[in-house]
Amino acid sequence: MLEHHASQAIHIFQSGLKDHPQDNELRLELGRAYLSRGADRQALWLFRQILAAEPDNRLAKLEMARALGYGREYGSSNRIYRELLSADAEDEAAAIGLASNLLHEKKSSDAVKVVDQALTFHPNSLRLQEYKDRIKNGQLGGEEREHAPLRDLVEGGVEYENDSAGNHAWRSLQRVDFGIRPGLTNRVLLEQQFQHSRDDSFDAVETFDEQLRWRPKEWLLVSVGGGAVRFNNRDVHAIYDTSLAFQLKQHVVVGGSFSCIPIIPDAEATERRITAQGWETFLSWTPQHWQITARGSRQHYSDENIGTRVSAEIVREWETPRVTFETGYRYRHYSFDEDLVHGYFSPDNYQSHLAMVGVRSQLGKRYRGLLLVRGGMESAASGSAFRAASEIYSRNEILMGAWTLALDYSNYHAVQDTGAFRADSGRFTFTYHF
Fold this sequence. Notes:
Elements: H1 6-19, H2 24-36, H3 40-53, H4 58-70, H5 74-87, H6 92-104, H7 108-121, H8 126-136, E1 153-163, E2 168-181, E3 184-196, E4 202-217, E5 220-230, E6 236-249, E7 252-262, H9 267-270, E8 275-285, E9 290-301, E10 306-319, E11 323-336, E12 349-363, E13 367-379, E14 387-400, E15 403-413, H10 415-418, E16 422-433
Antiparallel strand pairs: 1-2, 1-16, 2-3, 3-4, 4-5, 5-6, 6-7, 7-8, 8-9, 9-10, 10-11, 11-12, 12-13, 13-14, 14-15, 15-16
Helix pairs in contact: 1-2, 2-3, 2-4, 3-4, 4-5, 4-6, 5-6, 6-7, 7-8
């Protein structure tokens, strides 16, 4: 049942119960509709009616536990979830409900243990793995209803970037995500860029992209998308992306993609109307408190150049009730077959080794923050010596019901994009979930 049809559903189920007062399936669906509207008392009354007639009704117990959790009656809710898990240790829904309660009680380590135990019975469950990742990233707040998430969203934002080579860029972006049916979602992306370089050249670029994401199985995700990029001189080029992701075993996801993308980091590169077509593969392994990722790609550029990129990162997390500390290491290597001095890379070979420290924080139910600092060594040309390098990234989010406001700042060495120069960027986005 879709949340935005809850009012209509309540009317239908109420009419059905008048004609069939003994039908507990209708009573259960009516209770769920009440929950989606926030009418927890009416829902609890219906679930108690069902359990009075059918004491072993698992679905009614799950919904009652969920409703009690929404009302912050965590003790009563947890008892029902634990009773269900005692009867069936493989009950995935009960495990997720219990983990949600524990998280709201600021017991994130206990919540992770519950999810890890459930993953031993459902090692290929992307839902459990994604839920664990959400816990680690602090993406559930005390007022959220995890079992009835707001999956659709509208987002807008603006970004400004400049570097020490004199390049400036303004970007505006719009995004819409909406569900079509269970397991199938659609995403529409629009972006406009206005770029200016030191020699007074100016370029404007518009990009449109639409993506369909389909999850036919818990262990498989398919994504297909396409669109177009329109350059300042009205040239239009097609862009596309298709990808597959597989969960091979617990905590291990592998995948690959084939795409055609525009190369528009600055005005100098944009003037040449370059696109790049190629493949990318990735591996992600996320055991408890660790994140290990690796990526590799090879792209053929429309100016006949070929670029190869390899990166790997390992991150260790330490959790406290309100703050998560991170340390890690990242390796990157970019190379191009030819040095065409087009602005999208300089020089023809780059590699870096950076250590990382970070802090994720959540203050109350309205604020989330992230600060990452990287430092180490980089080599900006074939055979050149390594030199010191650093990066800073910060993100601040304000949560206001269905709205999220975010402000990002980055300071980094943009070797692969606008030349070997220092770059700063700031980004503001607002998102409405429905």
